[in-house]
TrEMBL record:
Record-given protein name: 5'-nucleotidase SurE
A Pfam family that the UniProt record links to this protein: SurE
Cell compartment(s), UniProt: Cytoplasm
SUPFAM superfamilies, A to Z: SurE-like
Swiss-Prot/TrEMBL catalytic activity: a ribonucleoside 5'-phosphate + H2O = a ribonucleoside + phosphate
EC number: 3.1.3.5
Domain (Survival protein SurE-like phosphatase/nucleotidase): residue spans on this chain: 3-195
Organism of provenance: Paracoccus hibiscisoli
Known cofactor(s): a divalent metal cation
Predominant location category: cytoplasm
Length: 269
C-alpha cells in the first residue's frame, strides 16, 4: 500500500511522527509512506489553498517533503508533482488536540483529508483529544499511537469508499483524552457543537501602540449533545464521523423549494 500523510501542525510536529508510525504499519514491508506536510504550523486554516501565490517545496529526505502552504496545498503538491501515481490512502494528522464538534469547521487537518476526497482518494483525518488525563503522560498521543492502525483497518474494511457519489466520503477520527488502556472502543457519531463555547477575538495593544488581536478558542470540556462526536470522546470512545465536502442542508431542500421556487418563478414571468 502507498500512503500519503500530511498534517496542519507542521513537518516537525510529534503527531506527524505518530502518524508515520501508524502508516508504516499499515503500508507493510513492501509499501511506501510519503510525507508532504506544512513547513510551519497551519492550525485553523481549514480547507484553505494558496491560490494567489506560489508555494515553495523542500525535499527533506526520501519520500519526505515540506511545503510552505496549507495541508490542502500539501495534498495537491503530492498529487501534482512529487508522487508518481496516486496513493492508495491519504492520512491527515495526528492533530495535537481534538477536531470534534465546531473545531472541525476550522481544522487544517480535516482540510487535508477533504482535499484528498475531492481528488477522488480515500482519506481519513485523525486527532488526539487532550485533557487532564493526558497532561502527565510521557506520550500524550499514546491513545492514537496504540489504537490508530486498528481503527484505520476497521474503517478500510467497513467504511463507504464508493467513488460514485457527487462528493466522496472521508472520515474524521478523534481519539479520546484518556490513556490508551482507558479507551472504551469505537463509536460512530455525528458532528456536534459544544454548548456556550465559541472562538473569539482577544484584542491586544503592542508596546509600539499598534492594535492587534489573538483568536482564542472556547472550553474544550464544554458539553455537547448526547450521541455527538464530542460526547463520545468525552466518554472515552474513539469517535468516527463520516464527512463530505457538501455544505447543503438536504433536509431543508424540499420544504424550502416548496415555499420559494414557485413564487420566484411567477415573479419572473
Amino acid at each position: 500500500m502507498r500512503i500519503l500523510i500530511t498534517n496542519d501542525d507542521g513537518i516537525n510536529a510529534p503527531g506527524l511522527e505518530v502518524l508515520h508510525q501508524i502508516a508504516t504499519e499499515l503500508a507493510g514491508p513492501h509499501g511506501e509512506v510519503w510525507t508532504v506536510a506544512p513547513a510551519f504550523e497551519q492550525s485553523g486554516v481549514g480547507h484553505c489553498i494558496s491560490y494567489t501565490h506560489p508555494t515553495m517545496i523542500a525535499r527533506l529526505g526520501e519520500r519526505r517533503y515540506a511545503a510552505e502552504g496549507s495541508p490542502a496545498d500539501c495534498v495537491l503538491a503530492a498529487l501534482g508533482d512529487l508522487m508518481e501515481g496516486a496513493p492508495d490512502l491519504v492520512l491527515s494528522g495526528v492533530n495535537r488536540g481534538n477536531n470534534a464538534g465546531e473545531n472541525a469547521m476550522y481544522s487544517g487537518t480535516i482540510g487535508g483529508a477533504m482535499e484528498a476526497a475531492l481528488q477522488g482518494l480515500p482519506a481519513i483525518a485523525l486527532s488526539q483529544y487532550l485533557g487532564p488525563q493526558t497532561a502527565d503522560l510521557a506520550d500524550p498521543f499514546e491513545g492514537a499511537r496504540h489504537h490508530g492502525a486498528a481503527v484505520i483497518r476497521r474503517l478500510l474494511d467497513h467504511g463507504d469508499w464508493s467513488s460514485d457519489a457527487d462528493f466522496r466520503l472521508f472520515y474524521n477520527v478523534n481519539f479520546p483524552p484518556v490513556p490508551a488502556r482507558a479507551v472504551q472502543g469505537l463509536r460512530v457519531a455525528p458532528q456536534g457543537q459544544r454548548q456556550g463555547s465559541r472562538f473569539a477575538a482577544v484584542p491586544y495593544n503592542a508596546p509600539n501602540g499598534r492594535r492587534f488581536m489573538w483568536i482564542a478558542g472556547g472550553s474544550q470540556q464544554a458539553p455537547a449533545r448526547a450521541g455527538s462526536d464530542v460526547a463520545a470522546t468525552m466518554e472515552g470512545f474513539v469517535s468516527v464521523t463520516p464527512m463530505r465536502a457538501d455544505l447543503t442542508c438536504h433536509a431543508s431542500l424540499e420544504r424550502l423549494a416548496a415555499a420559494l421556487d414557485d413564487p420566484l418563478a411567477r415573479a419572473a414571468e
